[in-house]
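HUMAN:
Sorry, I am quite new to this. Are you able to go through these amino acid letters and fold codes? The numbers rather puzzle me.
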Amino acid sequence: GNHEDAILSTVYGFTDEIQARYGKGECDSTDDIWDAMGDLFSVLPLCVRTDTAAIMHGGIPSDGFQLSELESITTEQRSRIRSMLDPGDDAICELVQNVLWSDPRTEHGIHPNEDRGAGIFFGPDVTHRFLTDHGLKYLIRSHEVVDEGFHCMKCSEENSAITVFSSVNYPNGEGCNYGAVINICSDGTLAPVRFRGYEVGSIRSHNEYFNRTMSYLVEMISQNKSKLLSAFEKKAETKTLITTKEWADILSSQLDLHEVDWLSLQPYLAPIVTEGLEGENVEMIDFMKFLSLHCNLLSNAIDECDGETMETLRQNHVLLLTVFKFLDTNGNGLIDRDEFRAGMKLLKKKIPKRT
């Protein structure tokens, strides 16, 4: 997966866990263990094939992709790619990065994966051609949280792209998703199993669960601000006002969260406009105020950035947060000079030089 990576495994706590487990006493061998783990990560299989399925972390790296392209990558070539955040610029590096970072979408064709800044978006038509070319029925992959633990995108009557995510309440117990695993049966059919996690000795209260759910929805709104704004503007007939039903329908379609009852959550997310609507029977929402309420993620220090710069920051906010988390070693939400210097030294040590 993309987290079996020299940089991401540091950012998301794996290095800290090694330090906690093996960094005590006179024989501190954490650096050697971390380096050995990096060696192991760099030779893990990129894809597994069964009689009916191709299983990979991200997905199809290009239109017309053949599994033989992965088979042609030697162990030595693969082991040189230590991080997908800076893999190199040759064809093999691009192929490996796209296998680990790409995502399926319902839109046909191939498109840049601007949400992640790496990989591509591939449509059901691309998936259908890939599976048909290889005599397979399923593309099974992970890489994205899905609320129900697994999600099936039908590509034709014969084949599908299936996302399965086994980490419950991702991330760090803060989310509200099911986990799932998929059993591939002896006859080639799939049997998904969902599960829900609970803390030992206690079950979270309804209020805590509700707050976590709302936090997740607000994050999704923030991540998709530009897409939502475009859809709102197309729907609005007067200024920046839309009906509550239009608001709910757009959130459902643009965020691909059709199972959420947006109308019941509207009082918590989007206040009704009352001024200047005397005599109107339809409840209206000011979508600009709604987006401003939930999308003030950037500090006042960059308020004067031009639109293109702001859009670039929004599109790459996940990567920016990853870098910030990597540098903020004490977790206080600030990066001081010592933390910045330490982070740069670690990056310089761990990222291989390009040849």
